[in-house]
Structures are given as C-alpha cells and as structure tokens.
Amino acid sequence: MTPESFAVTEPCIAAIDGGGSKTLLVVLRADGTIADIQQTGGTNPFDQPLWRERLTGLLKTLSPSTQAVGLGLAGYGESATLCARQEDAVSESLGQIPYSLTNDVDMACSAAFAGEPGVLVLSGTGSMAWASDGRGQHCRVGGWGSLFGDEGSAYQIGRDALTLLTHILDGRNSQDVAFLEPFSQAMGLPSDPTLCTPALLEWYGNLEHPRSAVAALARHVSTLAENGCTPAATLLEAAATELATHIRAARSQMPGVDLPWSYAGGTLQNPFLRNAIAAQCGAPVSPLLPPIGGGLMTAARQAGWAPDASWITSLSRTLAAAEYGS
To answer: pTM of the prediction?
Structure first.
C-alpha cells in the first residue's frame, strides 16, 4: 500500500482503466478531489504475462474506505477462460468492496457520451469500436488482436511504418525515400541505408515486448504527418479508413438511431488522424470524460453518489487539471 493511498481514510471511489500498454488507477474523494493516481504497465491478458501482478498490485493499494470500484479491462468479454481469471483477480484483491467490471472500450464509450447513444472508436495499442443506443443495447466491432485484427491501431501504424522502411532499405520502394531519414532518426537509427539495415535488425532482435514497442512508433508517424511528410500522412490516411469502417459497421448494427461518434486512445489524440476519419464519417464529438471517467461514474452510482451533469462537468475539469494521461 502506498503512503498516499494509506492516508485516504475518508469515503472515496476508484476506477481502473486497464489497456494494452498501460493501466491507470484514479481514486476520487466524495468532495470531487483526487486522492491518488497511479499507473503501471499493460494488463491485457492476451499478451501481457504480468497482467495479474500489475492489476492486483494497484487494487491492493486501495484504502478500506473505498466504497466502490469501476474497472474497464482490455480483453474482458473476449475469452471465457480469461474473463474468469480477470474476475478472480479482482474479487480476491477487493474483498468486500463493491465493484463493476467491463471491457475498457465499453467504459470509454460510457465516459465519452455519459451513457447517451453513440459510437466510441478507440485506437491505442489495439483498436475497437463500441456502440450503445443508450437503452442497454450495444455492439462491438474489431478488437480481434494483433494476429488478425487491430486495424487502424498504433500497433498497425507502427508495423506499416516498419514495412515501409524496410521496403525503402532493400529497394522495393523508391518513391517514398523521403520517409527514410526522418523516421529512422526518430527511431534513433542512422539514416544511411547501409548502416540503418543492421541497426534496425539489432533493434528488432532486442525487443522485450514487440507489440508495445511497435505501437510506440505510431507517435513518430503522427508527428511526421503533421509536419508534412507525405508517406507518413499516407500511413495515417490508411489507418483512418480502417477506423472509419469500424464506425460505419457499428452504426449499421444500431438501425433507427443516429449515432454520433467520439474517440479514445493515444493514437486518436492526433488531429490529423481524427480529421481524416471525419472526412468519411462526419465530425466527431469531443468525449465528455476520458475513459477512466466511465469507471468513476459507475463507481459513484454504486456508492450511492449522484453523478449528474454538474458532477460530470466537475469531474472532467478535475481529471483535465490532473493531466493524468489517457
């Protein structure tokens, strides 16, 4: 138990946003102030061997005065076996503390629209869309993982960038050579092709967690696209088309409801990518709350608080001021 969480003796609630690359815990006091913020590595059981230790490590820091916990975990709902393991890890750690457990994208959708109808498209390490009609009906699109899914995700953008780099290095692509120097330098590699090739293979050979490392490259692609690098912009436009397909598919499964779309995940903090999606699906609405806010709303209801519109507005300001990350 951390000193900060041990000191929390007044009534509070907590939420966990467990993603593929990082997991966030926020503890909120009844007066709306933040009592604790902690972050650890990814907790997706599909590809994070340490997911259980990381998740239970955060949960065990919670004070006995915690009235309820809302959790959104990557991978939840996708495998009966893994779901049982996630539920077991949570229940063992929390004991008698009430909690709710759902998929991290479901939680992000609730946060973005405060429970109203909408489509939430998430692009972080992985990708998925979640649609809700606001009356209990929902559907999901994507979220199949890196082996045969994750289109439009940071992982896919990073992988496509590496593919483009290798094609330039071995001569299969002579039209996008403008990508070589800025991207290799962003990776910390030499831009001379004769030196870049062995350096890239060395980088690859020393990866401890390939999926996270490849996904992290998407931020370089985003920066280059914003700075006018045409090949990088082409990579993001391809990702935007994939994510737009997610949105259209989700909308088609909710007939009779005109669903707006919103966004979550580090990849979609990039305006270039959002604008490219907007060109195909219309302008997005800004999320009312970041993903962790969905867990806090649920926990507040479980604790008997009143998470009305003014509470949500106050929470949004509090989380933004904390600059906790998303």
So the answer is: 0.85
